[in-house]
Amino acid sequence: MSEEVVVESRITSNRANLVVFSAVAMLVAGLGFMIVEAVVASAWTSPPYSYVYDQLPDLGNPMCGPFQNRVICSPHDGLMNAMFVVHGSLFAFAGILLSRLMAGTARAAMFVLALVYVIGLSMITVFHQYAGMPAIVEDLNITGAFLGILSGSIIAIIFGSQRRRLHLPPWPGPQA
Amino acid sequence: MLGVAGIVAGIVFFAFSLAPLGIRERVSIYPLMLWQIVAGLALLWVWRGWRNGATTERDTGDGDAGRVPWTLLVSAYLVPVMIVTQFAWLATVPVLVLLLCTLRNVRGRLARWLAVLLAVVYATPYAIWKLRPDPAPSLSKDMDPVFAALIIAASVAFIVAIHRTGKRSPIWGIAPESWSADNFADGTVRRGSPQREEDR
To answer: Any idea what the Cα angle at residue A119 is, between residues A116 and A123, rounded to 5°?
Structure first.
C-alpha cells in the first residue's frame, strides 16, 4: 500500500470519527430535549402546562407560585434543568467537533458560538424568574435565552454555508 | 437549505414578538431542535459514505443506488403501527424520516405528494395538541379518531404507491454514472476498486 493511500485513509478515518460523534451528539441533543420537554410538561397538571402562554424555562423553574398572569409549578424542574445543560453540552460538543472539519473564520466562529450556546443554556438553569426577583436576575435569564437562540441559529447558518466542506448531501430533491 | 432554517428561526422570532410568550419561544426554539435532528441525520449519511469508502463529495459509497432504503420502508410501515398502538407522539420520528427520505430519494411524483400529505395530516393534530389550552396528557389521547384514520389512510396509500410504482418503473434516484463508477472525474479512485488494487 502506498504512503499516499495510507495518509488518505487515515484522514478519512479521522474525519469519519468526527462526523459520527457530532451526528450522534446532535441527534441525542435534539431528540432528548423534545422528549424531556414533553415528559415534564405532561407531568405539570395544576393547572395544566400551556404551550401557548407558559414559557419554556418555566419547566425548569424550582419556584412554585403565580408570576406574570400565570402559575409556575413544575414537578420535574430538576430533570428539565439537567436536560438544558446536557442538551447545551452535547450541541456544543458537536459544534466543536464540526469546527475541526472547517477552516478560517467559520472554524473559529463555530467554536466560539458552540461555547456561547452552552453558556446561554446554563444561564437559563441558574437564573430563574420569580415574583419579586432582582432586575439583574431577570436580565440574566433573558440574556441566556437570547444567547442560546442566537448562537444556535448562527451555528445552523455556518453549518449550511460549509455544506461542501462537510460533504453534506444535496438538499432537497431526488438524486438523479 | 439547512442554514436557511436558522435564518428563518431568527426572523420568525422577531416577527412574532406580539404573540404570547410560549408561542414566541417555541417558534424560535422548535425549528432549532428539528434542525439539530435533521443535521445529525445528514451527518450520519456522510459518515456512512466515508465508512463505505467514499472518496469524493458526490460519492455515496453505495454502488446500488437503485435499492430501496430500508429506513424508508421501515418508517412507512411504522407510522400506521404506532398510531394504532397509541404511540402517536413517537411517530414523529418515522414521519420525519419518511418525508426527508422521500423528498431526497424518490422520483415518483405520487409518492412524493403522498409523503407531504402524510406529514401535513400528522402535523395538524400535533399542532392542535400543542396549542390547546387544556391538552390531554398524550397526543394519542388528544387526537381525534378522524385524524388517526386519515394518517393511517395516507400512510397506507404511500406504502401502496411506492410498491406499485416500484414494479412499473424505478422510482428511486438513479445516481449519475460518476457516482457509482470506480473512477472519478478528479482522478480519485474508489477504495477497493480493481484499478486501485492494480496501482498497489
So the answer is: 135
Q: What is the grid cell recorded at B161?
A: 404507491
What is d(CA A4, CA B182) in angstroms, rounded to the nearest whole number?
Answer: 18
**DSSP class of residue B189?**
B
Above pLDDT 70, what percent of chain A?
88
Beta-bridged to residue A2, according to DSSP, are: none
Contact list, A52 vs chain B (CB under 8 Å): 20, 22-23, 131, 133
Residue A133 CB contacts under 8 Å (≥ 6 apart), including other chains: none
Angle between helices A77-99 and A135-161 (to 10 degrees): 40
Domain that residue A109 falls in: 3-161
> In this complex, do B36 and A153 lie within 8 Å of one another by their Cβ atoms?
no
- Cβ–Cβ gap B1/A16 under 8 Å: no
In chain A, residues with a C-beta closer than 8 Å to the C-beta of B174 are 175-176
For residue A22, being part of any structural domain is answered with yes
Question: A128 near A141, Cβ under 8 Å?
Answer: yes
Chains A and B: how many Cβ contacts under 8 Å? 176
The answer to whether A60 and A84 have CB atoms below 8 angstroms apart is yes
| Cα end-to-end distance, chain B, whole Å | 41
Which one of A9, A116, A146, A159 makes the best mutation probe of the B interface by having the most chain B beta carbons within 10 Å? A159
> Could you tell me if residue A49 is inside a domain?
yes
Which residues 62-91 of B have a C-beta within 8 angstroms of A?
Answer: 65, 89
Residue B50 has its nearest CB partner, among A19, A31, A163, at A19
Domain total of chain A = 1
pLDDT tens digits, one per residue of B49-98: 777 665 444 444 444 444 557 778 888 999 998 888 888 888 888 898 89
pTM of the predicted protein model? 0.60
